[in-house]
Amino acid sequence: MSQMPQQAAVSKCPSCEEPLEPGDRFCGACGYDLSVVPARPEDSPTLAIHGVVPAPDDVAWPVARDSDGHGHPAPVHAAAELPGTDSGGSPLPPPPPAAPASAPAAPAGAPAPGVRFDRPGEPEEYPLQAPDPRLTAEPAPVPGQAPAPEPAAASRQPAPAAPDAAEKVCVACRAGRVDDDGYCENCGHAQPRERDHMEQESGPIAAVSDRGLRHHRNEDAFSVGCTALPDGAPASVAIVCDGVSSATRPDDASLAASRAAGETLLGALPRGTHPQQAMHDAILAASRAVNALADEPATAREQAPHQNAPACTLVGAVVTAGLLVVGWVGDSRVYWVPADRTAPPARLTEDDSWAAQMVAAGLMNEAEAYADERAHAITGWLGADAYELEPHTASFKPDRAGVVVVCTDGLWNYAESAEEMAEAVPLDAAARPLHGARVLVGHALDGGGHDNVTVALLPFPAPSQGAGSA
Q: What is the pTM of this model?
C-alpha cells in the first residue's frame, strides 16, 4: 500500500458483526434493522506502555480453556449449558419430570416449554397457592349475548420447539436453531463465524486472532503449544499463517499450514531433533498440506481459470531455555522485545516481498519502498503455484529475558519498526501473554483494522512447565 491506512470510523452489525458503512439502515450481510438498537460503543483496550496496568484484586479472571489439539480454542459454552445457582449460591433444584406421552396436550394459548434459555422454570418446592374458584370460574352467559369467539387458530398453535442444548442458538433471536450454512432457521440472521475471533493460552504462551474491521472473514490461523526436549528442558512453539486473499480458499490454506507445522514441531522436538532443523521440516510439512488442497475435487469445481491455488504465508518461533529459533516464508514477522526496555528491540525476520527486494538491491531506501503501492506484493508463499519454496530459518541466543512477538502484517502495519512494536507490547507481556496479545490486537483495530490480525507471544527463556505438550 502507498501509505499507512488512517483510522476509519467503522461500526459493526449488532447481530452478525459485519462492518457497516456510514448511513446504512440495514446490515448488508444479514439484513438486520439497524434502527431498532443503538450502535455499540467501541471497545479500546488499554495500552500499558510506560507502566503496568494492574488487574483488580477482587476479580477472579477465568482461565482460558485448552485447545482441541489443532491450534483452535475449545468452543465457548452458551449460558444455558452452565449449571446455575440461586441467590444464596446453592445449586438449583432439578427441573420437573417430563410429562408422559399419554398426558393431554397443553391448553390453547399456554406458553410452550423451553422458550426461555436464560433461567429454569419455577421449582416444585415453591408451589403457588391454589386459586380461588370464584375468581377462575367461567362467567355465566348473559341472555341475548353472543358467545365469546374461539381463539384464532394461530394462537392455538404451539410455539416452535426449543433447540437442544447441543445445538447452536441464534445470537439475534436466541430461540432459533442455526443451520449448517450458518443462518438462523427462525429469523434468518447470519451467525458470527467461529474463526472471526480466536484466543488460546497454552502454558506460558498465548495467541489471539481477529477478523479485523474491513474483511468479511478471518483468513489467518495459528497453532501454539508446549513440549519438552529429551533432557526435560521446556520448549514453546508458535506458528502463525496468513492466507493469501487473491488465492482460492485462503482460510483453508492457513488452517492446514498452521496445523501441519505445529504438529510437526511438537512431534520432532521431544525426539531430539535440533530446533532449527525441526522448524525447516515443519515448513516443508506445511507446504505439503497446502499443496494437497489444490488436488481436492472441491477446489477444481470452485476454481475459475484465472484463480490461483490455495496459498498462505507462514512464520514461527521455537523458544527453549537458551535458544530462540525462527522460520518463515512470506511477509509475516518475528520481533524480539527485551524485558529491560532500555535495551534495543529487534526484528528477526526479513520479508519475502517486493519492498524488501528493492531495499536489498539498493534501488530504494526502506521508507520509499514501503510507501510504494507494490510494497506488500509477496515473493514467497506456500502453495501449489509457488515458484520455488525457500524456507528461511535462523537461530539466536539472547543474553537477557524478553518476549518474542510472532505476527501477521495485520499487526505490524501499525507497529512496523522494532521500536514501535516494543512500545505497543505491554510491560507485563511475559507474565500475562494472553492479555498482551489482546492488547496488540486492540492496537491494530484502534489503528484501523484494515486486515486480519494475528499475534502470538512467547516469553524467553521458556519457563519450566514439565514434560508433555499442550
A: 0.61
